[in-house]
Amino acid sequence: MKIIPIILAVALATIPGIVFAQSATQMTVLTDKQSYTTGDTISISGKISSLGASNSAVLQVYNPFNVLIQIGAINIASGGTFSTTIKAQGQSWSNDGLYQIKVLYISVPILATATANVDFKAIQVQSSPTQSPSPTTSSSQTPPAQTSTQNGTQTIIQSSNQTAVEEQIQQRIALANKLKQELNQNTTLEIPFWVKDTARKWHDGTIDNAAFSKDIQYFISSGLVKTNGQVTPTLTFEHIPSWVKQAANWWAQGLVQDYEYANSIQFLLDKNIIRP
User: What CATH code is assigned to 4-121?
Assistant: First the structure.
């Protein structure tokens, strides 16, 4: 098995209100292969040279358009080692190119992050060679998707429903890239102080999920995240994983960019991880 180590040593900087360790904390992230295709399992492992009080880190995966497609918590052993697996499948893995796997660990006075880039190739599912239709097939059945035959292999052409899904994905990518540019330039939107203050209080346990819902309502109403007609700015979100509190705290402290945090909220809403 080929191991591809990608190491990023993070020099810890001073951030207002927080004092980090002066010596650099090193983190390594390794994947079992450098290239993957649709359906592959990606094995991720690594080690942090020194730990704080926290025994978990955040795992993020970005597609070639720098759009967050997966986020979750990853447990860290007492020796600083960690390992997990993710599956390269589904609509999130529909684009060829370079995917970024990022691990972020923050536990004052330690701040460390590392990334691993992997090549991905989406494989189109092909059917068996063309066969004549069965004479017993009923004409009332739903007609199959349009097909074309080349070299004896029948390739399924995407249906209108599949095309609609692809259009939604492209719109989501365009929105995310536009949002990143706007927030980085700080020309069109300034997130009010109370939004970060609410995130900080939720992490500290002084307010509950219902009160934190005001933050999510703000992100929806301001257009920072897009939702379907069933998710409105007036909803109260009671079901929120506890590990999201750490991400909210990092954002409140200025350790996570506005774009990254907004994109995380978008992902969690899309996947119904945060829900009323």
Answer: 2.60.40.1930
